[in-house]
Write a structure and sequence with these properties.
The protein has about 140 residues and is mainly alpha-helical. Helices cover about 60% and strands about 10% of the residues. The protein is built from seven helices and two strands, in the order αββαααααα. Strands 1-2 form a two-stranded antiparallel sheet. It is globular and about 40 Å long.
């Protein structure tokens, strides 16, 4: 039996709480979308359309990296919440709170996983040109 560090299981258990974080947009006409639903749908869409994104951009895209980024980009919202992207006043506080949450949650992960998650999260937060424009566009296009 492989001895898997308990920190990994604790983290996976923690990520399940994304189902509890509600976004500002609707999943259906009568129900708000959870962050978990949003992240899953973003990952599924990226997987299905990644070759189309490659053709459109003229660049080869790393599908594994895309999927990781889709799945983890909102993990900090478990601790920080999901403030509206259109709330200009709260952006500085949001960035500080999310940075603290990312560092706290990812720090204890073994096998370089914490460093990988923090680097991916920073890349996502930095925005274009470090991350492909598809992610920014698609994240917003799933709103109903």
């Amino acid at each position: 039996m492989v001895d898997i560090p308990h920190e990994k299981f604790d983290f996976v258990r923690h990520t399940a709480r994304l189902r509890e974080v509600v976004r500002h947009n609707n999943a259906t006409a009568g129900r708000k979308e959870s962050v978990a639903e949003h992240s899953w749908h973003l990952a599924m869409t990226s997987w299905i359309l990644h070759r189309d994104f490659e053709r459109e951009s003229g660049h080869r895209l790393d599908l594994a990296r895309m999927l990781k980024m889709c799945l983890m980009h909102d993990l900090v919202e478990i601790d920080a919440g999901d403030p509206s992207a259109w709330d200009g006043e709260g952006k500085a506080d949001k960035a500080r709170i999310e940075e603290e949450a990312a560092r706290r949650r990812f720090a204890d992960l073994p096998d370089g996983l914490g460093d990988e998650l923090l680097a991916l999260w920073h890349e996502y937060e930095a925005g274009p040109p470090l991350r492909p424009g598809w992610c920014v566009a698609w994240t917003g296009s799933t709103r109903r």
